[in-house]
Design a protein that fits this description.
12 strands
């Protein structure tokens, strides 16, 4: 392995580790997986992490310790103020008021609850809209830890003083999140790096908070409007799966290498992963290469710089789906803060604490779901969702299809009154819960990412035809992975045509509509949103 302390300023040819992973062209060090010590016991660490889950979320008859009293105080206070004050003052926007009260309670309860709120805030279309809107305010509500705590953690984990390790270390955090914060620094060997440092005692706080959440969650089922769709007990289990792995930065660094490998094997060189340091990675400290670029929302600046934004979003969407259905591993937390667009149009993927990993049966279920969607095969779609764990194994698939009317003609939501649309959503939700539907972690992460990328389309590629993009994506998978798909699920995508009827139906479009841009689709959605908002403001329930 190349000396990790030697400063490498530039390469005339691509660095050799680009054969292994989608890394930058100007590396501060080179990656050789065979010589990284912290990578050796990753399978055992993953197993240990998963083995903790049952004890963390076990159902308890008695309150689990003093933390539950603090949780009870803030949550019950929020519910009481809403019920006895907000609802009486004004029936209009009652649910929005409740979401506001819960968001304030989460802020007061600290990092673990803020992290839960941040996950919910990225769930447009998964969690209730009022909850999502309010919890988006939690994204920037985490104050950094005192620098003395940061120093103590870094020195304890790396076994040396800050002065021995770094020439420079910025005491001001460049970003602070619920689990950790990051600082810019320069190693003694000269490389500019980013240092991710875990918050003090966050692992102990998470354990206490998960116990409290698990005790409270069953009591919230059906009691307050904003939790009806979220299914609190399932949400706590999903949250536990997500956050436990984030508490070990060695797992995050391994995720970085795995996704870099997938991107390299699929020739997706338009996306890059920061290199984790070959030596300086521990459970609570992660030193990595610093990558810079345009913020994801700075689309106008990218266009002025000559970056093809439609190519950027297309490459991001393709690589994300490819990782999930072909390799079974994908970045699980795509949002504006985790994506940078570099001056050459490549996308830097950041923050790998939340990574989707599919077992082989679930990966094949995802693959069948993708193929079923392009073929408009409703039976296969529902079967695939069952195999992913979204429905019980013994569910009657035919009964689900018939009761939900999944094979009927599409209803255009723009033609429905707010009352009719609300009633339809309630009926579907009630039916799904009756069948025992839930949202497995991998499916939640996948949908959440797809919704984020979908929401980016009107800015990155507003005038691109949606149906053409879907057809091109299906053609790409057929030409590149046709043999593999045919072997694994018995359907050769090269021999079937994309059926857009199901796609149109899911968007509420009639079958005779042959073209719609992302800008036009956004306008339709905005029309529906305004009508629903007007209904809520009118106080009708």
């Amino acid at each position: 392995m190349r000396d990790p302390h030697k400063n490498v300023e530039s390469f005339r040819t691509p660095p050799v580790d680009r054969e292994f992973g989608a890394f930058s062209l100007n590396p501060p060090w080179l990656i050789d997986p065979n010589e990284i010590i912290w990578l050796k016991n990753i399978p055992d660490l993953r197993s240990q992490s998963k083995s903790q889950l049952p004890s963390l979320t076990v159902k308890r008859l008695l309150p689990p310790g003093s933390r539950v009293l603090t949780t009870a105080y803030h949550l019950l206070s929020a519910l009481a103020i809403w019920k006895f004050y907000d609802k009486k003052v004004s029936k209009a926007n009652s649910v929005e008021k409740l979401a506001t009260r819960l968001r304030i309670a989460f802020e007061k309860l600290g990092p673990t609850y803020i992290k839960l709120g941040q996950i919910i805030s990225n769930g447009d279309g998964i969690f209730p809209s009022d909850l999502v809107s309010q919890f988006k305010l939690l994204r920037d509500q985490v104050s950094p830890e005192p620098f003395n705590n940061v120093r103590q953690t870094v020195e304890s984990e790396l076994g040396a003083t800050l002065e021995d390790l770094f020439i420079e270390f910025d005491e001001q955090a460049m970003a602070a999140a619920s689990i950790a914060q990051v600082h810019r620094a320069r190693l003694r060997s000269g490389e500019l790096v980013v240092v991710k440092v875990q918050r003090t005692s966050i692992d102990q706080l998470v354990e206490k908070d998960l116990a409290a959440m698990s005790w409270f969650a069953p009591t919230l089922v059906g009691r307050i409007p904003v939790t009806a769709l979220a299914n609190p007990p399932s949400l706590v289990e999903l949250f536990a799966e997500t956050i436990v792995e984030e508490l070990d930065f060695r797992l995050e660094a391994a995720n970085m290498l795995d996704i870099a490998k997938v991107l390299a094997e699929t020739d997706q060189n338009t996306l890059v992963v920061p290199r984790p340091h070959p030596r300086f990675v521990t459970k609570k400290v992660l030193i990595m290469e610093e990558l810079r670029g345009y913020r994801w929302d700075d689309v106008s600046d990218m266009v002025q710089a000559g970056i093809d934004t439609s190519a950027v979003i297309r490459a991001t969407m393709t690589s994300f789906m490819e990782g999930a259905v072909i390799y079974g591993v994908f970045h699980g937390d795509l949002h504006g803060g985790n994506l940078l667009v570099q001056s050459d149009g490549t996308v830097a993927l950041l923050d790998y604490g939340m990574t989707g990993r599919l077992s082989e049966p679930k990966r094949l279920a995802f693959l069948r779901l993708l193929m079923a969607s392009t073929l408009n095969n409703v039976q296969m779609q529902v079967e695939s969702l069952r195999d992913l764990g979204a429905l019980p194994k013994d569910v009657n698939v035919r009964e689900v299809i018939d009761e939900l009317g999944l094979e009927g003609p599409p209803l255009d939501p723009t033609t429905l009154s707010p009352e009719e649309l609300t009633a339809q959503i309630r009926e579907i939700t009630k039916a799904l819960l009756g069948y025992g539907a839930k949202l497995p972690k991998e499916l939640m992460l996948f949908i959440k990412n797809m919704l984020f990328l979908d929401s980016s389309m009107p800015r990155y590629a507003p005038d691109v035809d949606l149906f053409t993009e879907i057809t091109n994506l299906a053609t790409y998978f057929a030409s590149k992975h046709g043999d593999k798909i045919a072997t694994e699920i018995g359907i050769d995508p090269r021999k079937v045509e994309v059926d857009l009827a199901g796609i149109k139906g899911s968007l509420g479009l009639q079958d005779d509509i042959d073209r719609i841009t992302y800008r036009e689709l956004q306008q339709r959605r905005e029309m529906i949103r305004r009508r629903m908002a007007n209904r809520e403001r009118s106080g009708k329930r």
